[in-house]
Amino acid sequence: MLPSSTVENYLKALHQAEASMGNETLVPMGQLANAVGVAPGTATTMVKALAESGLVEYEPYVGVRLSSAGTRLATLVLRRHRLIEQFLVEVMGMSWADVHEDAEQLEHVVSDRLVERMDAMLGHPAVDPHGDPIPTADGALADPDYHSLLTCPLSTPVTVTRVTDQNSSFLRFLEAQELKPGQSIEVENRNSAADSVQVLAGERRVTIGTNAASKVLIEIL
Amino acid sequence: MLPSSTVENYLKALHQAEASMGNETLVPMGQLANAVGVAPGTATTMVKALAESGLVEYEPYVGVRLSSAGTRLATLVLRRHRLIEQFLVEVMGMSWADVHEDAEQLEHVVSDRLVERMDAMLGHPAVDPHGDPIPTADGALADPDYHSLLTCPLSTPVTVTRVTDQNSSFLRFLEAQELKPGQSIEVENRNSAADSVQVLAGERRVTIGTNAASKVLIEIL
DNA sequence: AGCTATATTTTGAATAGTCAAAACAAAACT
DNA sequence: AGTTTTGTTTTGACTATTCAAAATATAGCT
Ligand SMILES: [Mn+2]
Ligand SMILES: [Mn+2]
Ligand SMILES: [Mn+2]
Ligand SMILES: [Mn+2]
């Protein structure tokens, strides 16, 4: 049985949840339900079915974790998603702020043939437009741990490399402020009382909240 | 309610069935069920639901016909399908023999944004790789009636313009025999006893059955 | 230990889509 | 007119996915 779109979405959500939490921890049902956008009971039902199929390991009242088979599948969905996003930006000329929604649907229907053709056409890219790493066809996924605007040293030139939020208006905001991946900036100072971070991007001086700042990952030059 | 993939497939099948039969005739349930690939009873159930939604007109024991709303929707699905095929061939470099299957899935998930971008990138093509006309964004669909290899004059140069069968191996066969849309050929003679048609394509002399011949449409130069 | 707040699971019900087989209608053929 | 064939509809049942609300478990707090 090839997995339905629904199953693929659950597996992908689980994969992302595992990545965002410290690993070893099981993902609690509530969080999964929330990520997938269904009622808690629905997630329970689905997870039990996934456990039957051997795609997850489930401990009632505790949480879920992807099995190795589940991880493999989730990674392939992620590969399709990110290659599609890169394709939509590089080939179709769409905005990095818009491609997520399209990819969310297309990831479930593109054939292997088509995915590999996009990959070749793009020159086997390592990351998508948001700086998220693209798994290889055999399921290998790099996961470097970057600094963020919250943790990097002050007054030091750094490069934006990854944005961990797909929200359209957030992405458009970053673009307007010259904070897209690839751009060089400096964090000037942080004000924990004001819950804000001040960065120098291009000519501009921008102040953003710490929550937003934590979503902008950087590399030190 | 936006139509599900299933509904879109029924509408498209109905549209093609209406086109292939002489119009004015209702499409019998059996034919629809067959085209969609479901049991007859399933088609009956679905058609009753479509009639409820005003997408078709249904006469029990006689047949179905698309309403104007149904026709509009079917035409838009057809537009997406054919633009996608053209895109896959022209931009992605896929074979005209393979693109139908991919398009069959993609047609249900591509956003309007993406479709219009493909259309622009292709220069607003009038036909797809099989010579099928591409409806415009407002739903207008050209439907010229071509001759076929069965009905065209003998020993007269004609151009292949359209192939009304998506079967992969048939398309590959035509390609190998230099009978793709755009190629100039001549029908040398027909043998109704042998149920065959002999054509001169490029340097080659090819003999094909009349059923196959009826699927290759041509224009007289 | 007892109570409360929170998270999770169960239960009962709904929708969309499907099939197999029985029942039935229309057409075709004696 | 009576019978067979063919095509269509109905019936009963099943899978996948979902929700709301009730029941229950766990964790947190006196
Ligand atoms: Mn998705
Ligand atoms: Mn991305
Ligand atoms: Mn389709
Ligand atoms: Mn086509």
List the helices and strands and how they pair.
Two copies of one chain form a homodimer.
Chain A lengths: L4 H16 L8 H8 L3 H13 L3 E4 L3 E4 L1 H23 L8 H8 L5 H10 L25 E2 L8 E7 L4 H9 L7 E8 L4 E6 L2 E6 H4 L2 E5 L1
Antiparallel strand pairs in A: 1-2, 3-8, 4-5, 4-8, 5-6, 6-7
Helix pairs in contact in A: 1-2, 1-4, 2-3, 4-5
The complex binds manganese (II) ion (4 copies).
The site of one manganese (II) ion (MN) has 4 residues of chain B, from loops.
The first copy, chain A, binds a DNA duplex (30 and 30 nucleotides) through α3.
What would you note in describing this structure?
The structure is a homodimer of 221-residue chains. Chain A has 221 residues and is an alpha+beta fold. Among the domains of chain A are: 5-66, Arc Repressor Mutant, subunit A, CATH 1.10.10; 147-220, SH3 type barrels (Roll), CATH 2.30.30. Chain A has helices at 5-20, 29-36, 40-52, 68-90, 99-106, 112-121, 168-176, 210-213, and strands at 56-59, 63-66, 147-148, 157-163, 184-191, 196-201, 204-209, 216-220. A six-stranded antiparallel beta sheet of chain A has the order 3-8-4-5-6-7. In chain A, a hairpin with a 2-residue loop joins strand 6 and strand 7. In chain A, helix 1 (5-20) crosses helix 2 (29-36). Chain A starts with a helix and ends with a strand. The model of chain A has no long low-confidence stretch (mean pLDDT 96). Chain A binds chain B through residues 88, 91-94, 98, 101-102, 105-106, 108-111, 113-114, 117-118, 121, and chain B through 88, 91-94, 98, 101-102, 105-106, 108-111, 113-114, 117-118, 121. Chain A binds a DNA duplex (30 and 30 nucleotides) through helix 3.
